[in-house]
Amino acid sequence: MIYLDYNATTPCDKRVVEAMLPFFQEKFGNPSSLYYLGQEAKNAIEETRERIARFIGARKEEIIFTSGGTEANNLAIRGTIEALKKKGNHLITSSIEHHSVLKVFQSLEKEGFEVTYLPVNDAGQLDPDTLQKSIRPSTILISIMQANNETGVIEPIKELASLAQTKGIVFHTDAVQTMGKIPIKVKDLGVSLLSASAHKFYGPKGIGFLYLRKGTPLSPQIRGGEHERRKRAGTENVPAIVGMGKATEIAAGEMEAETKKVETLRNTLEEGLLSTIPEIEVVSQKAPRLFNTSLILVKDVEGESMLLNLDFEGIEVSSGSACTSGSLEPSHVLLACGYPHEIAHGSIRFSLGKFNTAEEINQVLEVFPKIVEKLRKISPFGKSEVH
Amino acid sequence: MIYLDYNATTPCDKRVVEAMLPFFQEKFGNPSSLYYLGQEAKNAIEETRERIARFIGARKEEIIFTSGGTEANNLAIRGTIEALKKKGNHLITSSIEHHSVLKVFQSLEKEGFEVTYLPVNDAGQLDPDTLQKSIRPSTILISIMQANNETGVIEPIKELASLAQTKGIVFHTDAVQTMGKIPIKVKDLGVSLLSASAHKFYGPKGIGFLYLRKGTPLSPQIRGGEHERRKRAGTENVPAIVGMGKATEIAAGEMEAETKKVETLRNTLEEGLLSTIPEIEVVSQKAPRLFNTSLILVKDVEGESMLLNLDFEGIEVSSGSACTSGSLEPSHVLLACGYPHEIAHGSIRFSLGKFNTAEEINQVLEVFPKIVEKLRKISPFGKSEVH
Amino acid sequence: MYSEKVLDHFRNPRNVGKIENPDGVGKVGNPVCGDVMVMYLKIKEDVIEDARFETFGCGAAIATSSMATELIKGKTIEEARQISNNAVAEALDGLPPVKMHCSVLAEEGIKAAIEDYLQKKKEQ
Amino acid sequence: MYSEKVLDHFRNPRNVGKIENPDGVGKVGNPVCGDVMVMYLKIKEDVIEDARFETFGCGAAIATSSMATELIKGKTIEEARQISNNAVAEALDGLPPVKMHCSVLAEEGIKAAIEDYLQKKKEQ
Ligand SMILES: Cc1ncc(COP(=O)(O)O)c(C=O)c1O
Ligand SMILES: Cc1ncc(COP(=O)(O)O)c(C=O)c1O
Asked: What is the distance in A from the centroid of ligand 1 to the CA of C24?
């Protein structure tokens, strides 16, 4: 099996599983409990909090554990808006956000908030000037992702957030695709809120965190006990938190080396595909991009049919975003980049990770052109041959 | 170490950990992905859904996975109210609910809803007549827990829910303390919503579920992808879901036998304590109670000081509820039962589980009377000697 | 998510391609929606002697196209016209709910090609 | 959550009990709030010769009571009166924030017992 869908999810690093294991049966205490076993669990999660805080240049008290990236995004947006709704009702986001951001804004629109969805250029990039112009006196929140999960494009968060900062507007960034991949320093970025999810960087599923800058108001969305400084109730998922801590530690130590390795593989893949398959395009190839992501548009062929054919060959990739694969709409990200529907339907995403090898990439380069050729033969459109 | 705080959390059953393990590194796919690895994960969670549904007599589509009991309770209450708020603004709950229910109602009160907190009798039981009288034409939701986490008292959910049913009011029950301990059949109980949490029945932390009867309106609280039939977005916590499934399977097979064993131990403990320590009381001893729970009131001694002394001896118990141990208020449950503050401060909860042994109980019976004696000597109140 | 049969017809689609000088051609779907099917028919005395297709679309679109050509070969045009989208889906052991629209495409493809044939016949 | 020192003073509280015919007694706290402390003093020429306590309360309440008696023994009443709750907490290597009120109880206990002593002295 050749797994090339690391942006959808990653396998846990072995060391992450090892770190988690003792917390299921032995160190199983409830961190709210005062006795030894409880305090042991409490200490384990507090150490993780410290470690994650250090990694992103934050303070321990600024990290709130959540059940994943989706919850962190929901909490960031709803939590801010509930806390600030008396101050205004205008919100700004982009048209390329993940559904866990977009759907929240769409539901807020129904509740009477005004939302500006910023456009992107052909390469999927946001323009600070456009943001500047869309800010109103009633703007209370701006939420822009740090890197897009489909294209890999990295947005100029620092420039965007500084515009928010000068006007005293809360700025949130969805860093689910960047955490563990590129260095993040929240002070540098100038954001008030930042979301991440462990299963995107070799940690377990079902755990993530929200960075909440000290002093930023936030209304909890899940209420109950006094957990997470009253910002998020519920018995802490201790093993998963510890696992996310380990994943962070590993990223801190190995990120740089992995980046180089994976980027080389990704570039080999792209060059190989571009030189063997006619009429394909690498989306945003010239823009600042994540080193591991390659979104390819293949003319005259539909994405899912490529995906399934690759699956038959044991190669696992995504067609656009994992979450939207079940839907019939083409990727909203590609549409936002200005691609027409018929082109956007022909997208296939390769997202690489640290366990990939050069042989695997060669295998893909062997197999994929044949698949495209086969599907183009079935297609009623342009009958161009593969070289 | 003698762990007697199973109502706070339980260790994972060994078989649960074994069932989860393959899903961290090998079967790590994202259930939204169309290729083999994704569908494998998808099948694993759908089998779990089926298994849990069967266990509680529900249908597969009626089970929504959440990050735990707290989230399930929040989703049940807020989700119902958002869906039904046009129909009325009166809500009913009890004064002995878990904080993950109470705090949600308290925040709803601030948002303009009217909430009736039903009283309980001295034994912590709710009276269907009292509920009947408190129902108004504007009542849209009733939420009553099936068993209380502190006293173990089991409420007459069937009678209470039938009152709701005749008036077409949505009825939710927090079954976090009953799931896996006593048989649950949702049709029998007549509830529309039921919450549970895996870490209370030998499953992992960070996972739970909400039963949502078909046709009951519910507004999602975490939005994003199309997961969980659009009732709860976020990449599924596959290993934890599988673990909860295994825990359910184990409960289905072994619950009955474990109940007998644990009940005998609990009764031995209670009889032993009552016969050696003067001026103590077992709360709700005569009421229908969970077989594993024993809440003891010790006169003239404060709960935390007993808890810490027991901890010194390697015995881990809770003083009231795990969640409130960090706070200074005595248990709201004991206050609701009519105990004065000074008595309520002297509570200590033993909650047993399937890994406890007769020797462990003997050890507690050896140690605890001495601790009470010591603390009563320090106390300025009544200087009664321990026999 | 897909049945074995769907995967089989997707992996090894039957009757792919054009027919030279077809008696009927139906083009349905829309590239904007992500699926387009062209159905070519060879018809003799109102019996479908050969059917071929070209499809741009997802796995289900290709599999239903393939199955549709199989189903109509040898049938009279009256019989073929009565093949519903459900029949195509059933012949494939079912389709996921989100993909049922692909079977509609197949049904419409058959009907469009037959209409084209009848139209041409009238014009002769 | 508690420092080693707190746990030590809680586990082995110093100076537990009553003093017969004390020169000063202070009773502070409230059973409703979950902590009550009674401080007994033996005072000679305004120097605290002995101090004992009885406390109903949590771990921190018992530990701060114990530490308070240790801190004031041998001190003049003027010195003892100046012992703040922070000083008691610091002597125990700190207390968790939710438990700081217990150190207030200790400070108040000392003050109340000294007041009682001064009151009695005045009345003599
Ligand atoms: C950019 C982005 N944001 C948010 C999420 C959601 O995170 P999670 O899968 O932890 O719910 C994802 C992945 O699905 C993502 O790629
Ligand atoms: C009755 C009851 N409801 C809800 C909860 C919350 O569940 P969780 O710990 O999974 O958040 C608990 C336990 O903490 C409980 O005892």
From this structure: 48
Domain B254-377, architecture per CATH: Alpha-Beta Complex (3.90)
Backbone angles phi, psi at A166, to 5 degrees: -65, -25
pTM greater than 0.90 (yes/no): yes
Would you give the distance in Å from CA A295 to the centre of its chain? 15
* Nearest-Cα residue of chain A relative to residue C65: A378
Cα–Cα distances in Å, from B272 out to A184, A204, B139, B374? 58, 45, 46, 18
Residue D98 confidence (pLDDT): 84
Q: How would you class B384 by CB atoms within 10 Å of its CB: exposed for 0-12, middle for 13-18, buried for 19 or more?
A: middle
Tell me, yes or no, if the two domains A14-250 and A254-377 fold the same way: no
CB B12 within 8 A of CB A28: yes
B14-250 carries CATH number 3.40.640.10: yes
| Per-residue confidence (pLDDT) for residue D38, from 0 to 100 | 97
Q: ipTM of this model? A: 0.94
Average pLDDT rounded to a whole number, residues B243-272: 98
Residue ranges covered by each domain of chain A:
14-250, 254-377
What is the β-pairing status of strands B347-351 and B170-174?
unpaired
Whether C7 shows a pLDDT value over 70: the answer reads: yes
Integer angstrom CA distances of residue A340 from A123, A346, B325: 14, 11, 59
Contact (Cβ atoms closer than 8 angstroms) between residue A39 and residue A231: no
D102 is catalytic: yes
User: Could you give the residue numbers annotated as active site of C?
Assistant: 33, 102
Q: Is B215 helix (H, G, I), strand (E, B) or coil?
A: coil
A377 CB neighbours in chain C (<8 A) are 16-17
Tokens coding B210: 């909400």
The yes-or-no answer on residue A323 being catalytic is: yes
SS3 B18: helix
CA distance A77 to chain B (A): 11
Task: Give me the residue label for tokens 């080999």.
Answer: A268
Residues A103-130 have a mean pLDDT of 97
Nearest bound ligand to the CA of residue B197: 2
